[in-house]
Specification:
It is built from 13 helices and six strands. It is an alpha+beta fold and about 270 residues long. A six-stranded antiparallel beta sheet has the order 2-3-1-4-6-5. Helix 1 packs across helix 11 and helix 8 packs across helix 11. About 40% of the residues are buried.
Amino acid sequence: MAFFRIKGGAEVDIAKKEALAKLETSEILTRKSVGIKFLFTKEEYEACPVEEARAKMAYCVMVKTASLGVCMKTDIAKCICGGGTRAVGLEEPSERYFTGCEAYSFGLYRDLAVAKQEVNSLTFCKHHTHGLLIQPLEAYEDYDPDVVILFSNSFGTMRLIQGYTYHYGPQPNFKMTGNQALCSECTAYPYETNSMNISMFCSGTRYLAGWSDTEIGIGMPYGIFKGVCDGLYLSANGVEKDSRKAVLRENLKKAGLEDPGLEDGKAYYMA
């Protein structure tokens, strides 16, 4: 059986392209959006037509590479970071891991009890997966990803939260520890909770993948991605300053999108 779920007609593709256009015209991203799809069985992995990662690397480095336009699939043989492989379901944590001893040995926590508390609080995917498809969101055509990861600065992250809130209301359970950023905070937690999450990244991924000091990661299940983009688009009149509205009008026109009702001087804080 093929690993992908064939979409029901062209409408779904149009909706995804429109969502991407609404996102990109906002000019809040620092790099390409990335989609993650779980390939649960060996058969699904082998059926995936995308080339396997050419070198061993950490999951977060693969995500960074995808944000530069590269498509790849990976199984555990190509992943070198145990934190990542545990978080995304490629392998189960060891008994020693659950004692907190491994985390405590890194010097990140005051004592073993705090280390164990942190270990117990981390979100891992509860399923086992044989592999993952990691590629730019725009590369998904005949099937959908499971998780979307976006990259922005603090302003752009604010706007994405406003977009989420427009349709879904407050997200009261953001989960950040400054550790296991791309794998747990941006992939496992959004997938397991079906909600948006924010990550300030971790020291490991900043060293291995070389993110900008000002970048922030935003993960969400694909099922809410289009709603967030639509909320971003529809909330613009109420929150954007006039100079930004001028840029948005021009970008929307170029993208063939309707003006959502942008009026100068109408941001809520100008009233």
